[in-house]
């Protein structure tokens, strides 16, 4: 197994106590993802801290006239909702051109999720999310929801419902390789285009039960059992004779030098019969300055190989991906970054190998509160001769 680890530099935005569903912000702020999100894994609906921490951050401050009045509506909405409930949304649009030399650039909606949460008592709550946007990946779920039971803040949290298992690092960027198979575009050996080759589809969720413990600031432990019916729908088939998939994750979050150095280290496992996905995470950050993170994913899969839909073969295979990223806070609203990734797919009893390398330079720019623009330049290196360069961008509205 070749072990290539490429560095990614992501210069990030944060002089406040984290806000969005980006794990890099955890390293800059010293908080876990659950400090700002209803979900302990991060992502999705935001709690009060998650909303207020980003309330006034933007390159342009809406301080006068109509704009000021418009942004003040947010405070009115939260006042009407009350302290027992939260609502929110994420709306993302993407401009992208794939690494296929003949592909045209396209602009499309990639997400329009609505979130809601309500606490019936201090220990019993319900949360749900629905993505109005199109289903673009096999195994992707349009909705999720769960019952949350936690007798006390220092006691474990029990989640029951349609949920995404807590594994790896949950990132809002679906173009990273960590949850993809590093197969190339449509070739004689791969029936499914690379954009559909997912280990776990974005917004994947499954019926299941999970218990998580975060009673200590420096430790989080999660374990769950899930139906594998939706997991088996992913583009890379996870078919197994088992009925249940199992997951577990352990993370340590130590802080040093009077909380100016923030770190995490952890690992997770998803086991579905003969199929397994193992992820390793390591990160270090300086408060209000920068973060550096590394993630590796190793998986045993059933790889789809065919040049005809009449002759699909499911052959054992394995994939490995590495990514590394560095982030720097240039301004409270500006996060330039670069990311480097390496992925390899092995099949035919490990005799054949496909390798993809990806390098990304970009920036997260928070133009106004709740409005983010993310321009990027991507460089790909595949089995075809030469490098491929692509411009892209994401536009994100959220509440």
Cα gyration radius (Å) = 21 Å
How large is the count of helical segments? 3
Oligomeric state of the chains in view: single chain
Poorly predicted spans = 1-21, 185-195
Summed over residues and divided by their number, the pLDDT gives a mean of: 80
Number of strands: 17
Overall shape: it is: globular
Strand content: over 45%
Short description:
The protein has helices at residues 23-29, 48-52, 65-81, and strands spanning 85-96, 106-121, 124-131, 143-149, 157-163, 206-213, 219-227, 244-252, 255-256, 261-272, 275-286, 290-305, 313-328, 334-347, 352-368, 371-381, 387-398.
Map the helices and strands.
Blueprint: H1 23-29, H2 48-52, H3 65-81, E1 85-96, E2 106-121, E3 124-131, E4 143-149, E5 157-163, E6 206-213, E7 219-227, E8 244-252, E9 255-256, E10 261-272, E11 275-286, E12 290-305, E13 313-328, E14 334-347, E15 352-368, E16 371-381, E17 387-398
Antiparallel strand pairs: 1-2, 1-17, 2-3, 3-4, 4-5, 5-6, 6-7, 7-8, 8-10, 9-10, 10-11, 11-12, 12-13, 13-14, 14-15, 15-16, 16-17
